[in-house]
Task: inverse folding
């Protein structure tokens, strides 16, 4: 059963603990821990990949690769209470790798920005109308902050650290994105 | 809409779109679990009982290979000769050497028909036992040999390295044959869904080379490769030759294929590091990923990196490691690491990396000093030759000598896939 509500702080802490237990099992070679882990954080990983790539196909590939990489790296992780930061570092590296494969020449310091209307090509394959709106309306940077905060429950300062951005930037982009979404919904309702 | 409702709506939208990938992931993980983290690859080759199970595609190809072998051995190769023609073979003038673990020598005439096919070791005898290849054309012979290697378990996903050596009349013919043979073997592998890693070399076989090959108990093709590695690779010398001769083809392949290229060797690094990867080992880019995860460093913080395989002696046993040099943001000198080629485990870390934590305990990214000079002064001792025969290409540590890539840009990789930036804003 996948999570469908925004996570409370308690839920995030509990989920982090469960995630660490499952990673510990994997480090002992228990591949059966993968199923529960996917149920626990599959949406987080997929949502982040989709927010970065705006492509269902790419997001699926990255999600799959991320979990396989977690399995392979499990022995090197020791519980620290924040497994998602470690997991997202793995996922971000895989996303960058995929960019490199698709595009030979990219900026040295950051991955290329998908055009703000880049979600258009994904419209045909993404079922949720609301999700298509998010992809179309928000920039890649706004999308990743939104998904990391709302879907994965990371705090803004944790996102700032993960993305290596000032906290103020993360906050302002988050608030701006939320306002834009709210305005869009309001407009549609009217 | 209130923020709380909007948040729930966003979460629900992503959750509803999340695909069910568990079975695919599990299959991949189970496949990874079967990789030889602790099983020496040589055992996989030498012990048919421990051979990994063939997948369905492989079974089909193996079945075809068996049919082909039965066809060749049972019905006789004469059927390949068109009626009315006389299969008169010319003298042997082209020599093709195939090395996996079995070593096979094909002697061919001027029309690329097999004059003689020789088993150069015991494993090769098993491969050729049921084959009659004399007067068969080269393509058919190669298909039968490669098929037999599959059937006998010498070519697997974990052991996919083949050394091809060609000694022909002239360079043009040698190059054509190398290209044809490589293409043929690649085609056979493509049908299995497996990746093949080939080292193709032109050789000039002299009596002296034959004698040394015999003295070392290896094929002439392997002896030639060992000589070339000792000669071409700056970090190795004659003392390494016995170790190289003792290595399997896939170990040699890993070291040779990941070596830093010299300027006249072309754009060898202008490609994905994972292409043509050697089976049974963690790939170069995977090793880099595992290292970055272990030291909790984002790829964004890596300006340049260099990953190359090397061997080490540990308690008398040979061990393959990737030597990884990482140039992080705002630092001039690289941090040096070693990653086990079989397990992907970080076996040696640069103690100069601040906040290094192999398990990522503190969740902090590792940030070198912001002062390059300070870094350089602090880390003088950690550089230079590693003294164990590794392929380390350490840059100069003299402040006056500039950036490492100013000397030899072919050696340095940009993690973002770009080419060399001599005018980088690095400083």
Result:
């Amino acid at each position: 059963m996948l999570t469908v509500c925004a996570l409370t702080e308690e839920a995030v802490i509990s989920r982090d603990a469960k995630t660490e237990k499952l990673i510990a099992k994997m480090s002992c070679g228990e591949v059966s821990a993968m199923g529960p882990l996917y149920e626990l954080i599959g949406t987080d990983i997929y949502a982040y990949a989709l927010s970065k790539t705006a492509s269902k196909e790419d997001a699926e590939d990255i999600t799959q690769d991320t979990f396989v990489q977690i399995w392979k790296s499990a022995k090197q992780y020791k519980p620290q209470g924040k497994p998602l930061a470690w997991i997202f570092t793995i996922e971000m590296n895989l996303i960058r790798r995929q960019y490199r494969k698709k595009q030979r020449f990219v900026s040295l310091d950051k991955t290329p920005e998908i055009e703000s209307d880049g979600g258009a090509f994904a419209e045909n394959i993404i079922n949720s109308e609301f999700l298509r709106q998010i992809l179309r309306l928000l920039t890649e940077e706004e999308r990743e902050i939104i998904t990391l905060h709302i879907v994965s429950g990371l705090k803004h300062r944790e996102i700032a650290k993960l993305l290596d951005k000032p906290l103020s930037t993360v906050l302002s982009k988050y608030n701006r994105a939320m306002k834009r979404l709210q305005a869009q919904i309001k407009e549609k309702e009217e | 809409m209130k923020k709380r409702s909007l948040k729930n709506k966003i979460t629900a939208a992503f959750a509803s779109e999340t695909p069910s990938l568990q079975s695919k992931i599990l299959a991949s993980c189970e496949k990874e679990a079967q990789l030889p983290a602790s099983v020496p690859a040589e055992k996989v080759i030498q012990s048919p009982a421990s051979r990994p199970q063939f997948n369905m595609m492989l079974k089909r190809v193996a079945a075809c290979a068996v049919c082909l072998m039965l066809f060749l051995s049972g019905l006789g190769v004469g059927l390949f000769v068109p009626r009315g023609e006389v299969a008169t073979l010319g003298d042997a003038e082209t020599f093709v050497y195939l090395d996996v673990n079995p070593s096979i020598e094909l002697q061919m005439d001027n029309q690329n028909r097999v004059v003689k096919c020789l088993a150069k070791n015991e494993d090769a005898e098993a491969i050729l036992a049921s084959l009659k290849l004399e007067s068969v054309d080269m393509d058919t012979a190669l298909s039968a040999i490669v098929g037999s290697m599959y059937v006998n378990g010498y070519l697997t996903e974990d052991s996919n390295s083949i050394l091809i050596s060609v000694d022909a009349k002239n360079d043009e013919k040698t190059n054509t044959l190398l290209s044809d043979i490589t293409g043929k073997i690649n085609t056979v592998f493509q049908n299995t869904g497996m990746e093949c890693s080939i080292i193709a070399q032109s050789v000039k076989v002299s009596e002296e080379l034959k004698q040394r090959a015999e003295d070392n108990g290896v094929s002439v093709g392997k002896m030639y490769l060992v000589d070339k590695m000792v000669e071409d690779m700056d970090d190795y010398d004659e003392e390494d030759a016995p170790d190289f001769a003792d290595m399997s083809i896939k170990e040699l392949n890993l070291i040779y294929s990941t070596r830093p290229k010299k300027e006249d060797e072309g754009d060898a690094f202008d490609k994905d590091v994972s292409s043509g990867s050697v089976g049974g080992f963690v790939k170069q880019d995977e090793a880099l990923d595992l290292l970055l995860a272990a030291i909790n460093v984002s790829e964004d913080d890596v300006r340049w990196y260099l990953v190359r395989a090397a061997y080490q002696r540990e308690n008398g046993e040979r061990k393959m490691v990737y030597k990884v040099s990482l140039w992080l943001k705002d630092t001039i000198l690289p941090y040096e690491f070693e990653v086990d080629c079989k397990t992907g485990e970080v076996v040696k870390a640069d103690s100069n990396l601040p906040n290094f934590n192999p398990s990522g305990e503190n969740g902090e990214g590792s940030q070198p000093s912001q002062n390059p000079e300070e870094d350089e002064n602090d880390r003088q001792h950690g550089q230079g030759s590693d003294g164990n025969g590794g392929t380390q290409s350490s840059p100069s540590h003299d402040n006056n000598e500039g950036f490492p890539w100013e000397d030899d840009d072919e050696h340095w990789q940009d993690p973002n896939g770009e080419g060399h930036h001599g005018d980088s804003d690095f400083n």
Q: What stands out?
A: The radius of gyration of chain A is 17 Å. The longest helix of chain A spans residues 167-189.
